[in-house]
Amino acid sequence: MALSTGSKIIKTAVFISGTGSNLKSLIKFSKLKKSPISINLIISNNPKSKGLEYANIFKIKKKVFSLKKITDEKKILFELKKDKIDLICLAGFMKILSKTFIKSFKGKILNIHPSLLPKFKGLNTHERAINKKEKYSGCTVHFVNSKLDSGKIILQKRVKIKKDDTPKTLAKKILSQEHKLYPKAILKVFSL
Ligand code: GRF
């Protein structure tokens, strides 16, 4: 699975929609010596994303595109090319990218999903896992292909669902595992 990158640092864009806690953990990871990536661009479809604050804090370029118009994807591709971006990390990004977009970045888009895929693709994963009386849920980092939450799995982390867990408590437990899993998955895919 490891893709050799020589000694070249992989220029990465992180796509967010909300809080951006995974973005924050990826930025921190990118600053470590062992990290194969640098984060050069933050893209959000939501101008109110709290995560955009990290662009100011860490002095990373940010761009907002609502993605309500098909031309927005073209504009994003233009930005990615301009900044020579090699990797896209979707991190709590709530928009579905078109097949054309995914094709033009084939094999270079990763996503983190808060369930043990292939279980519970899509939204409200924690609620569905609890309602199904699953013993475990967790998170998955995977390559993005044209089918939602269906690309090749890179790494997963299991989290136990306790009897008194609510979607909120489970989300919190899983989110803190996501922060560790995404950097680990990047290290697994890209060996320096
Ligand atoms: C995470 O649980 C992620 O897996 C899901 O949305 C949440 C985003 O959290 N897709 P954050 O914006 O990274 O804090």
How would you describe the overall organization of this protein?
With 192 residues, the chain is an alpha/beta fold. It has a single domain, classed as Rossmann fold (3-Layer(aba) Sandwich), CATH 3.40.50.170. The protein contains 6 helices and 9 strands. The protein has a 7-stranded mixed sheet, with helices on one face. α1 packs parallel to α6. The relative contact order is 0.18. Bound molecules: 5-O-phosphono-beta-D-ribofuranosylamine. 5-O-phosphono-beta-D-ribofuranosylamine binds next to α1, β6 and α6. The site of 5-O-phosphono-beta-D-ribofuranosylamine has 14 residues, from α1, β6 and α6.
Short key terms for the protein model shown above:
single chain, about 190 residues, alpha/beta, Rossmann fold, seven-stranded mixed beta sheet, two-stranded parallel ribbon, 6 helices, about 25% strand, binds 5-O-phosphono-beta-D-ribofuranosylamine
The averaged pLDDT comes out at 95
CATH class wording? Alpha Beta
Low-confidence segments, given as residue ranges, are none
Order of strands in the sheet with most strands: 4-3-2-5-6-7-8
* CATH-assigned homologous superfamily: Formyl transferase, N-terminal domain
Number of helices: 6
Q: If you compute it from the alpha carbons, what radius of gyration comes out, rounded to the nearest whole angstrom?
A: 16 Å
How would you sum up the major sheet? 7 strands, mixed
Spatial shape: globular
- CA-CA gap between termini: 13 Å
Spell out the helices and strands N to C: EEHEHEHEHEHEEHE
| CATH topology tier name | Rossmann fold
Task: Kindly state the number of beta strands.
Answer: 9
Secondary structure: helix percent: 25-40%
